Amino acid sequence: MKGAERICFIGAGAMAEAMLAGLLKNRRIDADRVSVFNRQRRDRLDKLKRTYGVRIPEDRGRAVLEADTVILAVKPKDVQEALTQWRDYFHKGQRIISVAAGISTEAVEKMIAAEIPVIRAMPNTSCTIGLSATALCAGKWAKPADMEAARYLFSAIGSAVIVDEEAMDSVTALSGSGPAYIYFMVEALERAGVEAGLSKEISRELTLQTLLGAAHMLMETREEPAELRRKVTSPGGTTMAGLEELKRRRFDEAIKSAVLRAKSRSRELGNLLEQGVK
Ligand SMILES: NC(=O)C1=CN([C@@H]2O[C@H](COP(=O)(O)OP(=O)(O)OC[C@H]3O[C@@H](n4cnc5c(N)ncnc54)[C@H](O)[C@@H]3O)[C@@H](O)[C@H]2O)C=CC1
Ligand SMILES: O=C(O)[C@@H]1CCC=N1
């Protein structure tokens, strides 16, 4: 399968590009065996072709038909249109990987109305640099070999775990949306540094290196985050004063609410699709 797999991306947005960049960088796929198309923006496809060398098929039906793996990377509200449009071109010899948030494998299976292996995946945009945290789950027709093939693909762009489908809304809320929470925190830290008297450049540099260092400390020492936090926090010192302010403003509650709200939004996206709401 290595290198020889034919892949067709339906959807050419941020997520498709993040995956393409990561997969090609790691040589897990060959650009000339990858087809990409979207709904209408030709300029976008031309840019992807220039940047990554992928194919922009004139005959889209053929690209879908000939693909070993079809990666569905359209917004949840566009899943129905994208799948029904190509329903006659899907066949049992291929697998469909959907990255659409909230959309169940069952919903996809119903729309394609054939016994094709469907895999629901939730990567995140860090796949661009090979650092996605991806979770995968199997649809009704997906066999262990399909899951392994999907894991092989996604493990090239970060870590990839297989979970039960009921976990997917939580995964979406935590690691799918997660990079945005971190970026939001970085924005806030940078602004706070400036507010505290630093230049924008210095504040950014110190914030990013602090984030990188903390992430590596967590990964490399494998110590509990609470323990690492304790080591920063001298009794009566500056960190303690700062953390008290975060606690007073219920930082942990805010994070919990964000994840739980994103989880319920993932469910809503699936329900909206089933109700035919755009
Ligand atoms: N952006 C992210 O961090 C992540 C996104 N996702 C999921 O990935 C999917 C795509 O998200 P983005 O790339 O951010 O969206 P986007 O809006 O950047 O891209 C969507 C693409 O789908 C195309 N499209 C729409 N209808 C189509 C149709 N009928 N046929 C062919 N192409 C069609 C659009 O032209 C566009 O190229 C969503 O379902 C989202 O839930 C999953 C994980 C992370
Ligand atoms: O915001 C979204 O709906 C997508 C799913 C996870 C990350 N981005």
Automatic annotation (TrEMBL):
GO CC annotations on file: cytoplasm
Compartments reported by the entry: Cytoplasm
Query: Which residue ranges does the record assign to the Pyrroline-5-carboxylate reductase catalytic N-terminal domain?
Result: 6-102
Q: Where would I find the Pyrroline-5-carboxylate reductase dimerisation domain in this sequence?
A: 165-269
Xref: Gene3D superfamilies: NAD(P)-binding Rossmann-like Domain, ProC C-terminal domain-like
Q: A Gene Ontology biological process annotation? A: L-proline biosynthetic process
Q: What is the name of this protein?
A: Pyrroline-5-carboxylate reductase
Q: Which organism is it from?
A: Planifilum fulgidum
Q: What is the lineage of its organism?
A: Bacteria, Bacillati, Bacillota, Bacilli, Bacillales
